[in-house]
Each structure stands twice: as C-alpha cells, then as structure tokens.
Amino acid sequence: MVHIPAAEGAGKLPRARPASLRNRHGTLGYVAFAAVVAAIIALPIITILLLALGAGANVWPHLMATVLPATLRDTAVLLAGVGACCLVFGAGTAWLVTMYRFPGRAILDRLLVLPLAMPTYIVAYCYVEFLDYSGPVQAGLRSLFGFQSVRDYYFPDVRSMGGAILVLSAVLYPYVYLTARASFVQQSICVLEVARTLGRTSLTSFSSVALPLARPALVAGLVLALMETLNDLGAVQYLGVQTLSVSIYTTWLQRSSLGGAAQIALVAVVVVVALIIAERAARGGQYHHTTGRYRSIPFSDLNGWRGMVAAVVCALPVIAGFVIPMGILVSQAVTHVSDALEAGFWRAVANSLTVAVVASVITVMLGLGMSYAQRAAPSRFVAFCARGAGLGYALPGTVLAIGLLIPLAALDNRFDAFLRSAFGVHVGLLLSGSLFIVVLAYAIRFLTVSLGALEAGFARLSPNLDAAARTLGETSFSVLWRVHVRLLVPALGAAALLVFVDAMKELPATLLLRPFNFETLATHVYSFATLELFEQGTLGALTIVLIGLVPVLLLHNAVAGGRAGSGAPSPGWLRRAERRVVP
C-alpha cells in the first residue's frame, strides 16, 4: 500500500454528522413545535381552571343558588331540542336524496347545505323581523282577519326557547346532513339489497341497516352541531335564552364578576368534555362493511304524491334555514343600502378582511406544521398534541376570551411596569389590547379546521416521496417546502378558505376581545341588532352570507361525489404535481 501525504496547507475535511444525529435533532424540533402549539391551545383551559379555583369562596354557592340552575336547564333543553331536530332533518333528508329520485331532487341536494353559510345570529335577527308583531306575518294576519291588537289573537313568541330551537336547528342541521350524506354514499348497495331479500321494507332497511352503519358519522355531525349551539351567543341572547355562553358574558361584563364568569366557563368546559366523551363512546361497537363490492346507487323512483311529499320534506329545512332569512336580508339591504353604507360598512369590511386573512394564514401555517410533525416525527406524544389541538374548536368563544385575556393582560402589565421603571416608557397593552389577541383566538378556535384539511391532504401523499427526497440529500424541512407544499396547494387553499369564512362569521370571541372602537362585520351587525336597528346592518349580514356560500358549495361537491369503489383516478392536481415534482 502506498501512502500519499496530504498536500501542504490543505485543510482537514469536516467530519460529516451521523445521519441518526441529524434525524434526531430534526425530530426533536417537530416534537417541540407540536408541544408549543398544544401548550397554546391549553392556555385558555388552564387559565379558566386557575381563575375558577381562585375565586372567592362565596361565589360558588351564589352561582348554584341563582344562576346555574336556570342556565343549565336552558342549555340542556336547547341542546336536546337542537340535537333532535338536526338528527331528524339531517339524516332524513340525506337518506331521501341519496336513495330516491323525486321531483327537484338534484337542486334540493345542493340547496340543503346552504343554511350552513348563514350565521345563527343573523338568522335570529331575520326571524324576529319576520315573525315579530310589526313583521309581515303578523301584519298579514291582522289585515286578513281584521284583528286590531295582539290581544285579539294568539301568535307564538319567537323570542323564546322554541324560537331558539327553530333558528339554531334550521342553521345547524347541515352538519348532520353532510356527514350522513357522506356515510350513505359510501355504504355498500349489496348490504342493503341483502336486507331487502330478507323481507325488510325500505323504512326498516333504513332504520336497522343504514342508520347503524352511519352511526359514527351521525354522531360526529351531531356533536359539531351541539358544539356550535353551546358556542352561540348572539342568537340565544337576542332570543332571550339563558345559556352558559350568555351567562358568562353577562356575569363578566354586566355584573363585573370575573371569578363568577370563570366558574361558569369551567362548567361549560365540563359540558364540552362530556360531549366529546359521549361522542367517543357512541362510536364504540359500530358496524362495519363485510364486502368490498361497490357500484352505483340504484335510485328508487318516488312518483305522484310520494314524490311531492319527499320534495316538501327536503324543501322545508331549506326554506326555514336559507330562503326566508335570505329574502329578508336582500329586501332590507336593498331598501336601506344608503343608510348601511353610511353606518361604517366599509370600515367593518376592511377590518374583517384584514383579521380574517391574517388569521387564515397563521392558522394554516400552524396546521401545516402540526400535520407534518405527525408525518416526520410520528409518536404517541405528537399524536396526543395533535388531538389536543382539536379541543380549541370545542371551546365556546366566551370561554376562549376569558382564558386568553387574563394571562395576556397580566403579561402586558408586567412588561409595561418593567419599561416604566427601567426606561420611563409607557407602552400600554401590546398583546391584550391589540388585534394580536383576536388573531390568536381565531387560530386556537379554527386550528382544527385547518388541521383536518391538511391531514387529509398528507394522507394522499405516499411516504415514498419523503424517502426518495431524503436519499437525494434533502432535509426534512426542505422536503416539506420543496415537495409537500407544492403537492398540497389545493389542500392549503381549502384550509385557508374555510378558516377565512369562519373568521368572518365569528362573533363571541371577537365581541369580547376586539380593540376599542374596532368593528368587524359580525360585531357591526350585532351592534345594530341590539339597538333594534337591524335594517342598517343587513348589508353587512348579507356580505357575510355571500362569502360563506363558496366553501359550503365546494364542500357539498366533495361529499356528494366521493363514493368508494368507483375506480375514479386520483385528482388531476395530484397527478400533475407528482409529474412536476417527482422525477
């Protein structure tokens, strides 16, 4: 062997770091990111717990004696009523449009999801305008029958528990409809045909076969509807129902009892956890398909009066949840357009767009990082953090507001005190008094929306893409940036759109956390409604609804066209992206 000395002056080559060490450092980075995001999500809950436990000893007895009995009763009745109505109308209409052909079925299938674009508080304002004493319905009755005053006839009061159940059910049933529709579309026709050959009728096949198969989807949609009911503030407050969200709001702002509000918020968190546990339990013991055969659904024709009954049943929730409120919004907005434009409409639009765009970008970035952490550093801890991130969506906006405002205000005060003592500078409330806290609340609440869309996008990407890129010298971060982000453009866009629309509609958190004299479209409409001047806010309400229609229709197309076993190729965007990125 010949020894060849190194050239004079030549430096030593750097020793390459072992691949295992590089991978370990990268993995730790993703684990740390997941832990930080989970800690941010947990901050409001921890704050509520500490505030509730630190409140005065005499607060709990007072709440138990005066506030909580009526509040819990109203909340339970509202949840039960909305849940029952959503199940009946959501599952029933989903089964009809999936399995039967009747007049107007195709258009009704698309219209049934439209109420999801209507914020509950806007629908509540519209129904009060429509059914109140001075509204067109009662005015028409007085004109038709010659009644002179309200004492001459009986008309149910829309500002009641029944009115709240009607309004919330008319808006929230699409959660059950969409999940049930997706489940019914995916069910095997062979299973249903076997039930028919064993003597089952259409109705008994639906109740004994289709519903058990769809139970996980029905429960998931129902829990979403109940979460939205628990979160609602504008509609139930306007209709005179004392739910937990309303009690938190009034105890905090009107009675100036932060400790009492925190303790009611803790009760709301317990209710949320109970709903989540019930949803998990309801998924247990579910039925599964035992066949892999899927083919097109053979529609059964409903002719004559049966077809008309099916069309009416499917049209009623659309009329109640979309047609009536939309008609009122359009008529009022056209009549009072000049008043609405002069009442700060454009400023509210600019503020809403600014906050919603910033929140959607930040939320999608957090969702992308959390989704990729599960892929690049799979572990039980990361999976636990990802599941914990979904808890933010379950928190009512009033609970979220208290849980964020208190710690951030304390941090602001400490920082301001330090600057004043050290430099004589007064900076005020940098975090809790600015848009930062509003955007943070949106990110916590809607991270689940972003995470769901991006996890579905990552699930379509083969792990071989990561392995091939790493063998070519890419780091885990460069794989994310140069490969996955390009493939996930549609998923990123869908996540951003969903978060943007939800942020435009959000009322409770915005109402409690917005800076002074800062109005979004949601608070703009709320302010006029509380002053009984809803007609001046109808243009803003109509704007919110029109923006919300876009993702709702896109979501319906994805659900209605997603039958398994159809042999449909992967989406065109995925095939083109794979050809562009992968050699």
Outline the structure in words:
The chain has 583 residues and is mainly α. It has a single domain, classed as Orthogonal Bundle (MetI-like fold), CATH 1.10.3720. It has helices at residues 19-54, 59-99, 105-111, 120-131, 136-145, 161-186, 189-197, 202-231, 234-238, 244-254, 258-283, 304-335, 337-342, 345-376, 380-389, 391-394, 397-423, 435-459, 463-471, 476-487, 489-505, 508-513, 521-530, 538-560, 572-581, and strands at residues 100-101, 300-301. The chain is globular and about 75 Å long. The model is unreliable at 1-22 and 562-583 (pLDDT under 50).
Task: Give short descriptive properties of this protein.
MetI-like fold, disordered N terminus, two-stranded parallel sheet, 75% helix, globular, 2 strands, 583 residues, mainly alpha
Secondary structure: elements and pairs:
Elements: H1 19-54, H2 59-99, E1 100-101, H3 105-111, H4 120-131, H5 136-145, H6 161-186, H7 189-197, H8 202-231, H9 234-238, H10 244-254, H11 258-283, E2 300-301, H12 304-335, H13 337-342, H14 345-376, H15 380-389, H16 391-394, H17 397-423, H18 435-459, H19 463-471, H20 476-487, H21 489-505, H22 508-513, H23 521-530, H24 538-560, H25 572-581
Parallel strand pairs: 1-2
